[in-house]
Write a structure and sequence with these properties.
By secondary structure, the protein is an all-alpha fold. The chain is built from 13 helices and no strands. It starts with a helix and ends in a 5-residue tail after the last helix.
Length: 313
């Protein structure tokens, strides 16, 4: 085998591995969106018996507790980091965003609260280009555009008053866009476990400062829901952090629209909200948008994924 043939063979192997990493990132992002949609349903089930601020605190607390055995097994050294300022920034922004989004989820229908959160994708996509230097390829614009169009079809926004829930959801979306950028920066050097562990470690005391003013003791059934919320939240955050290690932010953003599909299904099964024809039409657009970005990436010219993701490993 000549040197040129060996070199071409290695490029081919890198390309195949890159595609595997790409689809792994897609699968993990879809898992994360399913977990987050379930969180919205649990919020609806437990309010107004529990204040949303209290639910945020318990979600962070039990999320950290469910992750603690894994942290101890790996070793406390897994928490060593040289980017504490990014963790502090992310935790502060994320805590306020969670307080706003959980409050909005208690006031709005599940699908509507989910759809309004998609404004985050437009902010995050723009900031990923400006802050991270990522390329917004045509396949990514197509995926983002189709997903957003699908969300609008499902919501069919008309002339109505601007409600408190709407304002809270939009404010949370703006904050979570910044969280997405900080998360991508951290994922370049930090492990998914470390990122998720610091989320619980820092956001639990921060969210307690808000919860203490509205505290009521949960019932035994509500405690079980809070434990489930913590477990789902940890799984979702680990999956999300790992997905951003495997693929770029702008490529994964359209997959966030799948949360509206999960929310519609949960609304049907749990709250007897029957999706209409517009919902299915919007869902079809979301599905096409979510897969077009990954398909377009898979057809890119041969190159190692490591290079395309800015050195993320």
């Amino acid at each position: 085998m000549t040197l040129e043939m060996w070199y071409r063979h290695q490029l081919s192997r890198f390309a195949e591995w890159g595609k595997i990493r790409l689809w792994q990132g897609v699968a993990l992002k879809l898992l994360a969106t399913a977990c987050f949609a379930c969180l919205g349903a649990i919020i609806r089930l437990n309010t107004p018996a529990l204040h949303p601020f209290q639910i945020v605190f318990l979600r962070n607390l039990f999320g950290f507790l469910t992750l603690s055995p894994l942290v101890l097994r790996v070793g406390i050294q897994s928490l060593h980091t040289a980017k504490m300022e990014f963790y502090l920034l992310r935790s502060a922004i994320s805590t306020v965003g969670m307080l706003l989004s959980f409050w909005a989820a208690s006031l709005l229908p599940l699908a509507e609260a989910t759809a309004l959160s998609f404004v985050q994708l437009l902010f995050a996509g723009t900031m990923a280009v400006w802050v991270l230097g990522e390329q917004m390829r045509s396949s990514r614009w197509l995926g983002l555009g189709l997903g957003f169009a699908g969300a609008l079809v499902m919501l069919r926004p008309g002339f109505r008053e601007f409600s408190l829930g709407t304002g809270l959801a939009l404010g949370a979306a703006a904050l979570f866009a910044w969280v997405t950028i900080v998360l991508k920066i951290l994922s370049r050097t930090e492990s998914s476990l470390t990122i998720t562990a610091y989320m619980g470690l820092l956001q639990t005391p921060l969210s307690f400062l808000a919860a203490v003013w509205v505290w009521t003791w949960p019932s035994p059934e509500q405690w079980l829901w809070m434990v489930a919320m913590g477990l789902l939240g940890s799984i979702g955050q680990v999956a999300l952090a790992q997905a951003y290690k495997l693929a770029e932010v702008t490529m994964l953003l359209p997959l966030d629209f799948s949360r509206l599909l999960w929310a519609s299904l949960i609304g049907f099964w749990v709250f007897a909200e029957i999706p209409d024809g517009w919902t299915w039409m919007g869902g079809a657009l979301i599905l096409v948008g979510a897969t077009s970005g990954a398909y377009g990436e898979a057809r890119l010219p041969t190159m190692p994924t490591q290079a395309r993701t800015g050195g993320v490993g």
